[in-house]
């Protein structure tokens, strides 16, 4: 379970997160939807201990990320690409992440297989396409077999096959009891995948609910999204 409660973040005089509160529950895929600049990455960065909130809390299974004993075994994440050095091979990168987190080496081969990079594990990351980089980021997120996955714009750079593949992977993770939270600024991507939607605009949560609940009274998710987010104007205040 991922729980955000009254989260406030200020940057200078601007409030970029204004009492953001929602939850992502086990067994569900939760999509965090909003236009560019709405506050999705800021929210996820606080959850993952990369940034501090000015108010409120963000908890992973009841604890702040920084106090987790085994973070990679609790929550796997993708933020800002794979984080791998260009001169390293994918296998070497994953082996390093595994070693520094006490994760058995055998997991490296398993996750490469799981994300469809088994044949590209020996290739330097600098030669990877955008889509391969996304797969590598997901491999690192899966290394510790975490209960929760937190993915910032995971389908960016994936082709239609890749999008179908990641949908299946996230669906299986949730069906096995895991928690999945993914952000997106493209509603079409999440329509066929998410159980629950959380819509943010201008640093405020404007709607939460199931796909049916969020789209009720609108022509579809796209109409709902534009109506709720004010036509895509997500610039904070
Ligand atoms: N390091 C920073 N310094 C100053 N302002 C920032 C910083 N990071 C984000 N912001 C601002 O905070 C607001 C929220 O940005 P954030 O990246 O969280 O939005 P987002 O919903 O993830 O958008 P995108 O889809 O473009 O990544 C924006 O107005 C952005 O310009």
UniProtKB/TrEMBL annotation:
Gene3D superfamilies: P-loop containing nucleotide triphosphate hydrolases. Residues 2-227 form the ABC transporter domain. Keywords: ATP-binding, Nucleotide-binding, Transport. InterPro entries: AAA+_ATPase, ABC_transporter-like_ATP-bd, P-loop_NTPase. Belongs to the ABC transporter superfamily. This is ABC transporter domain-containing protein.
